[in-house]
C-alpha cells in the first residue's frame, strides 16, 4: 500500500500587484439591445433637430411672421455660414473661450481648496456658510457694474463673474466628497499607521473625485453663462458684445446665428469635461456602469 505525502500549505507572500488598487471591471455582452442603445443617441438627436427646424419653418411660413422678429431657419443658416467665414468672428471666439476657461480654472482651484478645508473643519463650514449662501443667492447681474468699476471693461471683469458663478457647485461637491468617506475606512487607514497626507491622497482624494467632476460639469456651463452675460452687459469684446451689436442693428438672423454658435461652444466645453471624467475616473460606476449598460 502506497502513501502520499503533501507539503503543508505555505503562506503566500503578497506582492505589489496584490496591494495595488483594482478598478471594478464591468463585463457586458454585446446584446442587440446594447448595440441599439449605443447608437440610439445618434438617431434620436438628429431626428429631434430635424423636427424642431421643420416646425420652426412651418410656423414662420404659415403664420407669416416678420423676419425681423423671428427669422426662418434658412436665413439663420445663411447668417451662420457667413459668421463662420468671417475671421473677426474667430478672434471674438478666442476672447470668449479664454474668459470661460480662465474663470472655470479659478473656480475649480478655489472650489477644491475651500471644499477640502470646510470638509475637514466642520466648525469653520458652519461659521461661514451664511456668507457663502448670501454670495450665491445675490443676483450676479447686480455685481457687473461693480466689476466694471473695479476691473474695467476688459476680460478681467468677465473672468471674475465666470469664476463667481462656477465656484459654488465645485466647492459644494468637493465638500460632500470629503464628508462621504466612511468612518470605517478612516479607521482602516489609522490602523495602518497612515499619516494625514497619506489618508488624504489615498482615500479622501479618490473618494471626492466623482463629486469633483460632477461639480465641474455644472461649473463649465455656469462659467460659460457668466462670461457671456458679462460681455453682454459690460463689454465691448467677445461673442456677447457681438450679440448686442446684432440686436442694435435689428439683424435677427445674425443674432440667432450667434446664439447658435454660443450654444455649440458651451456644448463642446461640456463634452470635454465629460470626457475628462471618463479618462480620470474610469473605475467609478457613473462611467463603467454606463458602458456596461451599452
From TrEMBL:
- InterPro entries noted in UniProt: MetI-like (IPR000515), MetI-like_sf (IPR035906)
Q: What is its main location?
A: membrane
ABC transmembrane type-1 domain residues are: 93-273
Chain residue ranges for the region called Disordered? 1-22
- For whether the record's keyword set contains Nucleus, the answer is no
A Gene Ontology BP annotation from the UniProt entry: transmembrane transport
Q: Which GO terms describe its cellular component?
A: plasma membrane
Name of protein: Riboflavin transport system permease protein RibX
